[in-house]
Amino acid sequence: MTEKVKLLSHVEAINWNRIQDDKDVDVWNRLVNNFWLPEKIPLSNDVQSWATLTPDEQQLTMRVFTGLTLLDTIQGTVGAVSLIPDAITPHEEAVYTNIAFMESVHAKSYSSIFSTLASTKEIDEAFRWSTENVNLQKKAQIVMDYYQGDDPLKRKVASTLLESFLFYSGFYLPMYWSSRAKLTNTADLIRLIIRDEAVHGYYIGYKFQKGLEKCSEERKREIKDYTFELLFELYENEVQYTHDLYDSVGLAEDVKKFLHYNANKALMNLGYEAMFPASVTDVNPAILSALSPNADENHDFFSGSGSSYVIGKAVNTEDDDWDF
Amino acid sequence: MVALATTDDRVAAMADSGEAVSTAAPELTHCRLIYFSSTSENTARFVAKLGIDAARIPLYPRDAPLAAREPYVLVLPTYGGTGGEGSVPKQVIRFLNDPGNRKLIRGVIGAGNTNFGDNYCMAGDIIAAKCKVPHLYRFELMGTPEDVDRVQQGLEEFWTRLSQTQQ
């Protein structure tokens, strides 16, 4: 990069005893409590399972993970850092440094997976693919362009879409393997990344909304139009990327549902209504339950049939019960 | 960002530790929907879309506490966390520490994010288990239009059924 990195021109000592926005403290604490390192996950237990994948499936998996590595690298070294000069509170700046570091942990963790499962030659080939795949490079370039632009709200939109939407064409695959009892330790690691990205998307989206509150109606319209345009641009590219990757194993249509579902969540993180209708967001239940065991229909009391409709009666509890 | 200029008095007062706890008389509500939402407003937006009269559990300890006077369903979010610890927002704990409020809860609706895995809507599970009421529904973030339809319809049926079985 030849551009000069924008830095803060003035800094004051950060006082964590005087907080302007409680969300900064809540999110800092959440991120710190969620901290993890790839060394804690017994990835080597997946070696046998890896051997049961076909060469095509192995190659797909390697490519998906190099794509994710690229996104995490961008977010760690450019994305989260680019948000620091726009921060409204000093604690917000600190949260971005935490986010940036965790993105670097994520990027490194894919290398842990690679070195456990694949040969140096396979790893090098996958990285070469990542630099040559047009759609992967395009998504990186679109986001990078906005990070280097001079509109703080647009940077937050790009960042939230990256955290909450662009990763999911890749996250689909380890959830798919997990649902078939394959690469389950790798999936455990990916779930930790997914959890982190949810907090990142939530927080950056929240700060975006705080910034937008102060804008004129005209500016709000401009930003909303921009958000949907960018989402469409990224979406079209994601669809191409999904076909590049998943056509060989026949999963592209299933992945696209997962993209729609996550695009809706990215929009909600930004305070906008979901855009894709339920008819195209019906994610494969096996993928959803690989993501969260409580997410299936069995947990919907309202849709239970009349006969199984058991209504509990509230009982008195003691105050002691409420010391969580 | 240059200095600590944009201090919102409300928020700053809250942040000072040893914050004042309200001694004001509780605010009574007859709403059958009571919810908690943080400053992210996700759950508040979902509740607004339902178009049902609802009371909000106060955010700050110095606000007058809320006291339910009719049976109600509680809507509350879970913001992640691990193993359930710290899943229930402290404001909701304060609300449910009032035995009168606990007695009138009839069900829970959880908000969350499936990205939180096992912890998805965990606060709803914890309260449902402790109060022995059903966890009626789960939705993500501020809910989709389908979530809104299902909860509107589900709540109507729930109250009808309840009035037939528990009088």
Describe the secondary-structure layout:
The complex is a heterodimer of chains A (324) and B (167).
Chain A: H1 22-33, H2 47-51, H3 55-82, H4 90-117, H5 120-132, H6 134-148, H7 152-166, H8 168-179, H9 184-213, H10 217-246, H11 252-269, H12 285-291
Chain B: H1 9-15, E1 27-29, E2 33-35, H2 42-50, E3 55-56, E4 66-68, E5 72-77, H3 90-96, H4 99-104, E6 105-112, H5 122-131, E7 135-140, H6 145-165
Parallel strand pairs in B: 1-4, 2-3, 2-5, 5-6, 6-7
Pfam families (chain B): Flavodoxin_NdrI (PF07972)
Family (chain B): Belongs to the NrdI family.
Protein name (chain B): Protein NrdI
Task: Explain what this protein looks like in three dimensions.
Chain A: One of its GO terms (cellular component) is ribonucleoside-diphosphate reductase complex. Chain A: It is an enzyme of class 1 (oxidoreductase). The complex is a heterodimer of chains A (324) and B (167). Chain A has helices spanning 22-33, 47-51, 55-82, 90-117, 120-132, 134-148, 152-166, 168-179, 184-213, 217-246, 252-269, 285-291. Chain A has 324 residues and is mainly α. Chain A has a single domain (22-293), classed as Orthogonal Bundle (Ribonucleotide Reductase, subunit A), CATH 1.10.620. The radius of gyration of chain A is 21 Å and the shape is globular. With 167 residues, chain B is of the alpha/beta class. Chain B contains six helices and seven strands, in the order H-E-E-H-E-E-E-H-H-E-H-E-H. Chain B has helices at residues 9-15, 42-50, 90-96, 99-104, 122-131, 145-165, and strands at 27-29, 33-35, 55-56, 66-68, 72-77, 105-112, 135-140. A five-stranded parallel sheet of chain B has the order 3-2-5-6-7, sandwiched between helices. The longest helix of chain B is centred in the C-terminal third of the chain and has 21 residues, at 145-165. The radius of gyration of chain B is 17 Å and the shape is globular.
Key descriptive features of the protein:
heterodimer, A: Ribonucleotide Reductase, subunit A, 12 helices, B: 167 residues, Rossmann fold, two-stranded parallel sheet, disordered N terminus
